[in-house]
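Sharing a chain and its predicted structure for anyone who wants a worked example. Both blocks are below, sequence first, tokens second.
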Amino acid sequence: MLRDLQTQMARSLLEDFKAPPPEGLVAGDAARAAARFMIHRGNVIESLVNALGHSFPAVKAIAGDGNFRVLAAAYVRASPPPKPQLLSYGATFPEFVGGHAAAMRDFPFLADLARLEWAMSEAYYAEEAPALAPETLGAVAPERLPALHLSLHPAARLFVSEFPIHAIWQAASAGGTAPDPALEPGAPQGEAVLVARPSGPVEAWKLAPGESAFLGAVAAGAPLENALAEAFAAEAGFDLAAALAAFLSRGVFGADISFDPTLNGGVA
């Protein structure tokens, strides 16, 4: 019975703001009980909206506080938290934003901005794990490098957008005006972004085409030889040594390495 009452109350909290509390939930003065319940309902929704604002500050900055709160409240009612853990709440918010016609009409990049911010939230709360040390990579014999398998660190994310999403995120985070892709010369230039947690705070870097292709191949499980081919196909001037140095300094790779036995150099 208690479980049913709790379920009924949870549903009622997210109904129309003026809906009365469910029958059997309160006793005494019905009018006073309804007023108190309405206050509690408002507090619940407000706390969830604030949590979303904390997870998506750039989206909030672009949309404006009032518009964001309306959007977030609609999401809260449509997708209440599936479990009592606010750290994981908001995973489907980017898709909700993408389906919101008014928001996407005014800001066609808004869903991708939300996806980038959720990737940053995931990176922040990702498990602690050692990153690949430069000495470990340096100890690999040159003839074995083509078969080398790297893996992304649990806190590393690669995000690719058709919009200049890193520039938009930077502008919104700094309190400035986001560049309007429609006003840029030619077609909107997409950007790839690396999200990582090298030494505590989560950071985001814009990637060159070769870097993005290389990391995408690594994330897909490709050995170094194939990842390098993907990078050169995307950017003829790709500099592997410089890219690896940057990635290692940012803790992008997990500590464990392996070798593809089907490639030359893959047999221990």
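Comments welcome. The chain has two domains: 1-107, 128-268.
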